[in-house]
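fyi for ur records
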Amino acid sequence: MQPLAKETGTRERLLEAGAEAIAAKSFNACGLAEILAAAGVPKGSFYHYFESKEEFGVALIERACAEYVDFLRPVLADASRSPLARLRTVFELGRDECAAKGPQRQCLIPKLALETSQLSEPVHSAVKRAYERWSELLAGVIREAQAAGEIPPSHDPDRLARLLVMLWEGATLRTQIDRSQQPIEDFLGFAFESLLRARP
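which gave:
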């Protein structure tokens, strides 16, 4: 059983090092040698787990998506708060993470999303699936908020969820341009004080 634990640790070190390096630079600008050096793993071990950098990229995205979904589940399922409050908390936590990391630092999936025109189809598809999964989770809470009378029923939940994700991604990109958290604050104000406000 011990060799299996060792192999799992090696794969995780590769994924962790790759996520850090790509978030700091970009997928295309980050060389395999750089990732291997950061992970302390020889080249031969890399190909034991991944056939190519492309397959490695897909694994990175799927890992990041799974971690984010696991993080969101308890937030979105917190019955002690209203659905709309839970929805807002998702973005407030994202705001806090952006503030902690600084405007120059991006999370892995948004970083790769900016490179989609240059990515291979499998990596591009993995990025697309990650965003679809996030939108699906938000749409579920939007439906709860509509049932509770917090969001107008005229909104299509799936479309509204996709729109919120798009607005959020635009706001986080603008924080890098402006080197300020203000675009995120503007997003929160518009989304929760105007776009989602229930009509009397």
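The radius of gyration is 19 Å. thats all i got for now
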